[in-house]
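step 3/5: co-fold with LLP
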Amino acid sequence: MKPLHELVSEFRKVSTPFYYYDIELLRETLDEVKKNIEGQPFAVHYALKANVNRKILNEISLAGLGADCVSGNEVKRALDVGFAPGEIVFAGVGKTDREITFGLENEIFSFNVESIEELRVLNDLAGKVGKKMNFALRINPNIDANTHEYITTGTRDNKFGITLNELWESLQLIKALPNVDFIGIHFHIGSQITDLGRFKELAIRINELQTRISEAGFSLPHVNVGGGLGIDYENPDTSPISDFRAYFQLFKKHINLFPNQILHFELGRSIVGQCGSLISEVLYTKPGDSTTFMILDAGMTELIRPALYRVKHVIQNLSSVEGSDIYDVVGPICETSDAFDRGISLPKTKRGDLIAIRSSGAYAEVMSSRYNLRDVAPSVYSTDLS
Ligand code: LLP
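step 4/5: write tokens
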């Protein structure tokens, strides 16, 4: 793991903006995940939605994780890079018939079903394809994850999963469906969760539900708690790896698994978030009335998170270190929301300086767009640098 400012001369050889991925850090993160689930009845599926870069996926698949997909194309990508079909789960509130059929034909491990209507459709399509399909029922546990409202998914008002009120009706229906096998329950309460107490609340809710479901006559081999473990956006250098130990221990301590039950996780951000940085060059600096605008060649097209959620990523000047000034760091896109941060202190910056926007491994490259007919930013990997 080389500090980014030591890579300036390497970075100068590439045209900006680009995503830089520290593959060594990704490997260390994966080792930490594996170390903390060893010997436990735990299975981790990487949530592809966080980053579908093939090189990153190769590393994750080589590390032995499964895959969590939310579209037919993600399932296809997971299969292409070598994830075993039997380790792929497929979630999403709006799966099309074509996507479901694709999953069925490829014999993925399980669908996370999000509504009673979807369950009927899955049963019908499985009948047509002539295969019996595993599914887990996604239940909305009505727990507030205490995170940004746009990425809260487990409260009553969110569109995800069946409500607790529908559970009984769903269980009755399941008994009548011949082409599907009810193998588990699935939850996901939100993303970028830093208060582990939220997961404890989820564990306790799951215990109650498990009792109700087994009283209804089901014995389920799988429980899936989704993803959501947050990363430290403020301190990417001093805390580059999330506290997986505390996270997995919490579930170990608070979830009452039945004998032989397997607990599944769908982690995205905490696996890939810190290994990526968006590297950009300063095009111009110009004085405003109350600030100086630092205009980068990267914008909301390469990293939309600050514009969409008003969240902050650490911004560093890699090539100038002297003096300081207050800047609004903005992109070139024709929208005022195209700003990475405002009123922040950075070393005196000039045209041509190299800027790193940290913690851009998750939900950056995957959420990029070609708005303003921008070029697609390439990726550079630490393992390819001399
Ligand atoms: N499982 C399900 C069902 C999900 O909906 C998600 C994320 C995950 C797993 C993975 O969650 P993670 O471990 O990455 O927190 N674009 C937003 C994040 C959206 C997350 C959507 N669902 C952002 O940039 O913050």
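step 5/5: annotate
Residues 20 and 380 are 5 Å apart (CA to CA).
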